[in-house]
Amino acid sequence: MKTTCESRSVLSEIGRKYLRLSLILDLGPRRLRKLLDFFGSVDAILEASGAQLAGVDRIPNKLARAIAGAQNDDDVEKEIETAAAHGARIICMQDEDYPELLKHTADPPICLYVRGSLKPTDAVAVSIVGTRRCSHYGAEQAVRFGELLGQAGFTVVSGMARGVDGHAHRGAIRAGGRTIAVLGNGLASIYPPEHESLADEIVDHGALMSEFPMTISPTPENFPRRNRIITGLSLGVLVVEAGKRSGALITARLAHDLNREVFAVPGRVDYPETSAGTNGLIRDGQAKLITCLEDILDELQVVGGIMGRDLAEPSEGTSSTTADDSLPLGEHERTVLQTIRDGAEDADDICAKAGLESGTVTTALTSLQLKGLVTRLPGNRFALRRSH
């Protein structure tokens, strides 16, 4: 059995409790949210009886019994040992490095398995997705935009699949940027297997991530779940080549649902098998037509302006964390900044007092941090960086 010290290198004490719940079949993030809203804490859930659990909306009796009976540590310890053997950590929603944007989606993963590192700057991310059977043009554009976004300081998020995904990761790495790959299987194996060396490079320049237990194999139903994480980690999604039935279109729809920006690179009209989806998104007004980095920066408005300024003026020695008060603030940024001035610190408290949706507040907080006006504190709290 793993020692306590070894366990802590893989997950926190609170993470162990969430892991216990995440290993219960059919629980899932939405049902966990129901339970947390009802009982108030993960400890109260684990201490509840089957009858108490069954009294919660959408918790069937069989699942209630499974939760109440989840007192055996064997499965938890086995999962921890497997994660440790593959150099993975397990983080939960209450851990400091759980991605903030993802946390405020409708169904954030109960636990995330991570190989590599997560950084606060990963909140400024753009996803690149597209077909697995991309053309030479699609491969070129995926690498190009991966490089451009990486050079501009964005973290490039994708799914490490064949085709567009892999090329996007390579572009970000080539630019010396950060990249995160979200997998549709457990981190004990690499899929597709020919991307094993790419996976190692991604770990060195960012992270591999999955919500699936370590030994879960890739299956078709896993990938829509994977796609929601890709979207949830990002400020926007860029689609590079997609046919009419491409999974990338699912990711684009998820982005709309999360109020994320959707971009698309126009495809060749004589190759509908790789371009019908992307060109359709543009035609129907569901995606912004993108031909260069500046198009993305323009659509991301304040955050894009900051990233573009830093890219255009690298020699001035003025980073985004030393921005002065003359920087323009959007309406939501002003509201959030005033809320912090008035004494709100906790992210949830800021949402409530600002009267804004959590995703809007998270984006505003990210921008305010980039401008050097707000700093993040332990415990998902925020404070003014200087006297404003």
Model description:
The chain has about 400 residues and is of the alpha/beta class. Among the domains are: about 120-300, Rossmann fold (3-Layer(aba) Sandwich), CATH 3.40.50.450; about 320-385, Winged helix-like DNA-binding domain superfamily/Winged helix DNA-binding domain (Arc Repressor Mutant, subunit A). About 50% of the residues lie in helices and about 15% in strands. It has 19 helices and eleven strands. The protein has helices at about 5-10, 15-20, 30-40, 40-45, 50-55, 60-70, 75-85, 100-105, 135-150, 165-175, 195-205, 220-230, 245-255, 270-285, 295-300, 300-310, 330-340, 345-355, 360-370, and strands spanning about 90, 110-115, 125-130, 155-160, 180, 205-210, 235-240, 260-265, 290, 375, 380-385. A nine-stranded mixed β-sheet has the order 1-2-6-5-4-3-7-8-9, sandwiched between helices. A two-stranded antiparallel ribbon has the order 10-11. α17 crosses α18 (about 345-355) and α17 (about 330-340) packs across α19 (about 360-370). It is globular and about 60 Å long. The protein starts with a helix and ends with a strand. The model is unreliable at about 315-325 (pLDDT under 50).
Keywords:
Arc Repressor Mutant, subunit A, 388 residues, alpha/beta, Rossmann fold, two-stranded antiparallel ribbon, 19 helices, 48% helix, single chain
Short description:
By secondary structure, the chain is α/β, with parallel strands linked by helices. Among the domains are: 120-302, 3-Layer(aba) Sandwich (Rossmann fold), CATH 3.40.50.450; 318-384, Arc Repressor Mutant, subunit A.
